[in-house]
Input
Amino acid sequence: MHAFQPFPIDLLELNPFTKIGKDWALVTAGSKKKSNTMTVSWGGFGVLWGKNVAFIFIRDSRYTKEFVDDGDFFSVTFFDGNYKEALSYCGSHSGREENKIAEAGLTLAYKLGIPYVDEGSLVILCQKMAAVPITEEHFLIPDIKEKWYADHDMHTMYVAEIIDVMAR
Output
């Protein structure tokens, strides 16, 4: 186990365009009995409803979505560059068929009962506040549907309060 330390959210300096869009992160949800993780490259951070929030997008077909939907909490774990292969593996394999966390060479840890990936360098623990299905009638630009949803595998946007931040 790695030693994570509490990290004050007001000191967090993170470029979401790089950390999420290029470096990626893992979203993990579930319990000590059963959890799953998946790679995310869409999302961000901000302030909404008077809370510091994270927002992520998960396609309807993803197994991890079942865990996020069934619980109140999830984690977002960021990594240094040495874990890109593991992140790629977690984004291209389903936990329905295998223990992809172990297959990717990763391990789970828990704080407040919330699973996160122990090999990360920064962990954000989140409590869900809203789950908003993205539907085709929401698109104001036709190219969005054609480019991102030709298979009709839509996303749900999750907005969650950031309840804890840990860093190594």
Summary: Residues 5-167 form a domain with the Pnp Oxidase; Chain A fold (CATH 2.30.110.10). The first strand starts at residue 5 and ends at 6.
